[in-house]
């Protein structure tokens, strides 16, 4: 199966010559199509000819009509099947350039979706069907909708997408048989919720020639605010960043994805919830491994915790926070001859001395009265979040000890061995 063509959407704040530079940067990083939308840019905000000279141009009509100059420069013109009143809309486009699309307002059954596509569509048109996702279990329906649409229109014409906070893993599965894969370039801009990062898609495709006709089961990381996670860089592909809200339906997510994923890395704030959901004897887990029709859970954070306590080399260590990482530290404290003093937010009343570990995620603000008196404080986050936590420790009178990479590598090695045993 030929990989889907990677589509990036021009952000609304990028205009003129900057738009051409954006297109060139996207092309350098692996984008294959550039989308411009009539709801994001005025007709004279960009030069369609200059953009089309860099990447094939997908022009999408969203509320405002497509300018003639855009249509002339376009590789494809995206027009919706229905107008705002629900009636058949015009599918007029230059010959060979139509992409007929439908953006549903609610999740549909496969039969409901197919009824929308009973309208006659030119034989040379691409077709795109998009639905919102509120329930991860809807992945089964969208995969069936895609299969039936491919039967009707042919494998070289169909794209089916889910959108929403729980849609990303569904989009990765649909991409195996889609013609187009709409991806985000990174930073704060995404054209739609649920898009994968362009760099992650390209990283996966570098190993695509190793895949057989049936692609391998995927791996992924589940968490909140995980854009800086290094897991996709070191684990075998395909490996997906699945970023959910803190109150997101992570339990339903792992259940729905059991047939499609070999395992997951689990990070904050889901370590305790998924331990309970999978019936683990552990208080917190960070690894799920598929065993036939069920998930088996593990906590390889203990390997990272051992490394951090070993590096601190202190007999007594205070721990800021009492979540999943602290559970791993408790497990390993005896092995390293260390006594832990776990401090919840309300327990902090005086400046802290000695050696400690900061377990709060970067997105969780520290207590206002937290102060250190020369304490050495291990930072177990890494990358930009780790640097921000380190700066906060300095501001409050402590000395940060950057051990996030040591923790991460130690636990990741064990995760890799476990995932290789998945069935």
From TrEMBL:
GO molecular function: shikimate 3-dehydrogenase (NADP+) activity
GO BP annotation list: chorismate biosynthetic process; shikimate metabolic process
InterPro entries, per the entry: Aldolase_TIM (IPR013785), Aminoacid_DH-like_N_sf (IPR046346), Shikimate_DH_fam (IPR022893)
Name of this protein: Shikimate 5-dehydrogenase I alpha
Species this chain originates from: Pseudomyxococcus hansupus
